[in-house]
Design a protein that fits this description.
heterodimer, A: 268 residues, Rossmann fold, three-stranded antiparallel beta sheet, 9 helices, 9 strands, B: MetI-like fold, 11 helices, disordered C terminus
Chain lengths: 268, 264
């Protein structure tokens, strides 16, 4: 793994805008959970979730339905429940190939923007890859803020730094837990477009409770609803992302998703 | 504005003191008037300064050693389970022994010089620093720990280095505000150790001077020494507090920031 890593970082300068480094092929995965139980309450059953390589998969559902838990199991923030089953398309373990972005930006309050991007390198004891960090900062349009502390930045800017940080590691799989839900509508709209561009080629799981966000960014959309919750059949809206929310087809899908969210699970 | 407030407070207190001595017509050896104390301060300036220097050295060395030992202990206790399980209970239990009670023992073991006073200061300072820092180290937000674990997973697996880096870049910086609280408490109580140490047995120092003056009913000299000790303790606290603020600039507006984030 190590030699490939260093080769990649050399090849990827400067980072192409639309597709990520050609070297590592995108990796997909499949997670099966028989059930998810919290405090004796079964909140989720018969989950079979596939993340297609290089695609953004959105998981949409009301709060408390267990969508964050799925992400946390993939990120191993939570121990996987018994009878869970995880495979990747290339057969290698997922560990060490994930990056993560949260609703909170999780920036280190004492460190500059640049140092926040380099924290992964520092934590691993690698030489900080300043060139890559600066290239990513350029992509999120924050070059001139490199020496600012996070408290000088707006919420949207902080989330852009967090987005750049989640791409520092060149991890093929990116897990995003409602990354834009704390932002105002316009900031969110711009950040979604930015994310769509920067995440191209990566396998992404995007957790959201906003149907329009899922429709704008998701190549594949699953709705998780009911109690215990079940995963809907995938919806695959047409068109390249980020999609235009005023599109008629999207409006139809929007109402379909709302129906699914509202109640009667549309089962297989 | 702040300076003016301080001046008014100090001036008011001196005025009350002066009028008390005048009204009650107290003898000089019971409560000397501020003027008499000022006179004593002036006439014994050399003596007081000499003894104040001894006390200052005891306080500063004790504070420094207390901080170093306290910080190292906190990191060891938080990082290694055996240390936490075996040593930490002992540390807590040791606090049940009043430091004043072991002062004579320290003098017996370490003699009449600086050493027992420094050890006294150290013993008093050690605990708030250790507990404050440890509390901070144990309360790193889980979200950051998760993120750090994920970031470290993609590297080569070296447990010791990963732990060291986790402390260096995440845990210790997040614990600094708690450490700062511990240091503030330590700075405020550091003079106690030195003075108590001097009371038990010393040949110089402000505590020694006060005890000596008291025995000879030189109450004005006692008050003058007390005044110098108070000013010294206040200055020490102020300087440390100021230094801590400068060292942790991101804390000043962090509360604003969180409210701002929520409103977005």
């Amino acid at each position: 793994m190590e030699p490939e890593d260093s080769a990649n970082s050399e090849l990827s300068e400067p980072i192409p805008d639309t597709s990520r480094d050609q070297g590592a092929p995108a990796v997909g995965l499949n997670l099966k959970l028989k059930e998810l139980v919290f405090d004796g309450d079964t909140i989720l059953t018969d989950l079979d979730l596939t993340l297609s390589p290089g695609k953004i998969t959105c998981l949409l559902g009301p709060s408390g339905v267990g969508k964050s838990s799925i992400l946390k199991i993939l990120a191993s923030f939570l121990p996987p429940p018994e009878s869970s089953f995880l495979v990747t398309t290339d057969g290698d373990p997922l560990k060490g190939r994930i990056s993560y972005m949260d609703q909170q930006d999780l920036l280190l309050p004492w460190a500059t923007v640049l140092d926040n991007l380099l924290i992964g390198d520092r934590l691993r004891g690698d030489t900080p890859d300043t060139a890559r960090a600066m290239a990513l900062l350029d992509q999120v349009g924050l070059t001139k803020w490199r020496d600012a502390r996070p408290d000088a930045l707006s919420g949207g800017m902080r989330q852009r730094v967090a987005l750049a940080r989640s791409l520092m590691e060149e991890a093929p799989v990116v897990l995003m837990d409602e990354p834009f839900s704390a932002l105002d509508a316009i900031t969110k709209y711009h950040l979604q477009a930015l994310a769509a561009r920067m995440l191209a080629g990566r396998t992404v799981l995007l957790i959201t409770h906003d149907p329009m966000e899922a429709l704008r960014l998701g190549h594949v959309i699953h709705v998780l609803s009911g109690h215990p919750a079940r995963l809907s059949l995938p919806l695959t809206p047409a068109g390249a992302i980020p999609r235009d929310p005023s599109d008629d087809a999207l409006q139809r899908l929007y109402s379909e998703i709302m129906t699914r969210l509202a109640g009667e699970p549309v089962d297989a | 504005m702040k300076l003016l407030r301080i001046l008014i407070t100090v001036g008011g207190l001196i005025l009350i003191w002066e009028s008390l001595t005048a009204l009650l017509d107290l003898p000089k050896f019971m409560l000397p008037s501020p003027l008499v104390v000022a006179e004593a301060l002036y006439s014994h300036a050399g003596l007081i300064a000499e003894n104040a220097l001894t006390t200052l050295i005891e306080i500063l060395v004790g504070l420094f050693l207390g901080l170093v030992f306290g910080m190292v202990s906190a990191v060891l206790i938080s990082a290694y389970r055996p240390v936490k399980q075996w040593v930490f209970p002992l540390l807590i239990a040791s606090q049940a022994i009043p430091v004043f009670a072991i002062a004579p023992l320290l003098v017996l073991w370490l003699g009449y010089g600086l050493a027992p006073k420094i050890v006294m200061s150290l013993l008093i300072i050690y605990f708030p620093v250790t507990v404050g820092f440890l509390d901070g180290l144990n309360r790193t937000h889980p979200a950051w720990l998760n993120l750090a674990a994920l970031l470290q997973q993609s590297g080569r697996r070296r447990r010791l280095r990963n732990t060291l880096n986790l402390y260096r870049y995440i845990k210790i910086p997040f614990a600094l505000p708690s450490l700062a609280s511990g240091i503030r408490v330590a700075a405020a109580i550091a003079p106690i150790g030195a003075i108590v140490g001097e009371w038990v047995g010393a040949s110089s120092g402000l505590g020694y001077l006060m005890l000596h003056a008291n025995a000879r009913v030189q109450t004005d000299l006692m008050f003058a020494s007390l005044l110098v000790l108070t000013v010294m303790a206040l200055l020490l606290y102020y300087l440390i507090d100021h230094g801590l603020r400068l060292a942790l600039p991101w804390l000043a507006d962090q509360t604003d920031l969180h409210s701002q984030q929520r409103s977005l």
